[in-house]
Amino acid sequence: VTHLVTLIPGDGIGMETSAAMQEVVAASGAPIEWEVAPAGAACMEEFGAPLPESTIEAVQRNKVAIKGPVTTPVGTGFRSVNVALRQALDLYVNLRPVMSIPGAGGRYDDVNLVIVRENSEDLYAGIEFEEGSAQAKELIRFVEESGAGTIRPDSGISIKPISVTGSERIVEYAFQYAQKHGRNKVTAVHKANIMKHSDGLFLRVAREVAQRYEGAVAFDDKIIDACCMCMVQDPSQFDVMVFPNLYGDIASDLAAGLVGGLGIAPGANIGKDYAVFEAVHGSAPDIAGKNLANPTAEILSAAMMLDHLGELEAAERIRAAVRKVYAEGTCLTGDIRRATKSDAAPATCAQFTQALIAAME
Ligand code: NAI
Ligand code: MG
């Protein structure tokens, strides 16, 4: 059967990495047909909005999508397309496997961890009050009167909601994932010592869920700041890691840095009904349109998508080609040249893509 998949190319380097991804998927032999749907700067003119309703509907229709990065416009009043899409489709899991690729310039060769980031609440809920606004003033008065504390009158305020429901489903996902993929441990990461009613709640719920898996999957927890140090010092101690939204965002880029950078870090946004695969990185405006981007992250995201669709052989063909091209080391993009401190000439996005395709033949 042919799988119909929604492709949101994105903007910035998304145009280049998505085209590369399409070529590589075609060469893998996977029976994929694309339905292209726009988002981001690319469709502001035509639709007057960065995330058209028709794009959300396209994902709902096909259930599976892959998405290039989208620039978040600052100061236009529009919310991040990424956050809006995750919320509209209730994609509550952000799954980011982090694995060493020999030759990619990682600091370690034995990183094999999985980041499970809560994707629907926390400071990403987008509930904010501008400094000096009537709402901010009212909130400040309420806080004062409640005896909870004081807030300076010239404060902007962002709200950090973390629910029992949201925490339970993300931790449950992490344990299910561990069990399904033969992994041994889940680590919950938090700052429960300071934020008792948000992170503290998350930790309490995580401990409750962990009890259901006692004897099957081990559990421990770490405080986010100490966790960052441990990840840098010895990432091999981690297996599956589950985070509230913001810490997961930050730790994802840190983990990508351990294995060679954002250019090779894939991911997926997953909900009950839909899945949208996308790289960890953003639209990289500093190198967009110059044929310099590393498409590996989006290509490995496509491999995750093929796993999800049951096209396991094609997915493995892509991953094997990636490993081969990095191990050979003759045709790698500039980000990897820098990570490996190599003086060799960098390959363009297009040259690297051709090398991957050649490696699959
Ligand atoms: P970024 O991830 O786009 O770039 C950070 C640095 O990494 C830059 O120096 C960039 O050149 C480099 N880089 C990233 N991906 C690369 C690749 N594939 N190959 C080679 N080098 C790469 O993060 P930044 O600059 O903070 O964000 C740029 C825009 O992207 C912002 O508007 C942001 O909101 C948006 N963004 C979108 C995301 C998404 O669509 N899922 C995720 C993260 C950011
Ligand atoms: Mg991020």
Distance between the termini: 23 Å
Please describe the biggest sheet, giving its number of strands, its sense, and whether it closes into a barrel. Answer: 10 strands, mixed
Poorly predicted runs: none
Percent helix, as a range, is 40-55%
* Element string (H = helix, E = strand): EHEHHEHEEEHEHEHEHEHEEHHHH
CATH class of the largest domain: Alpha Beta
Under the CATH scheme, the architecture of the largest domain is 3-Layer(aba) Sandwich
Number of strands: 12
Number of helical elements: 13
What would you call the structural class? Answer: alpha/beta
Q: For this structure, what is the CATH homologous superfamily of the largest domain?
A: Isopropylmalate Dehydrogenase
Bound molecules: 1,4-dihydronicotinamide adenine dinucleotide, magnesium ion
Spatial arrangement of strands, main beta sheet = 2-1-3-12-11-4-5-10-8-9
Shape estimate: globular
GO molecular function, one term: NAD binding
Domain Isopropylmalate dehydrogenase-like: 4-356
InterPro entries: IsoCit/isopropylmalate_DH_CS (IPR019818), IsoPropMal-DH-like_dom (IPR024084)
Protein name: Isocitrate/isopropylmalate dehydrogenase family protein
Describe the structure.
This protein has 361 residues and is of the alpha/beta class. It folds into 3 domains: 1-92 and 263-361, Isopropylmalate Dehydrogenase, CATH 3.40.718; 107-121 and 162-259; 122-160, no CATH class. It is built from 13 helices and 12 strands. It has helices at 14-28, 44-47, 53-62, 81-88, 134-146, 164-180, 199-212, 224-233, 245-259, 296-308, 312-328, 334-339, 349-360, and strands spanning 3-8, 32-36, 64-67, 93-99, 112-118, 128-129, 157-158, 185-190, 218-223, 240-243, 268-270, 275-277. The strands form 2 sheets. It has a 10-stranded mixed β-sheet with strand order 2-1-3-12-11-4-5-10-8-9, with helices on both faces. Bound molecules: 1,4-dihydronicotinamide adenine dinucleotide and magnesium ion.
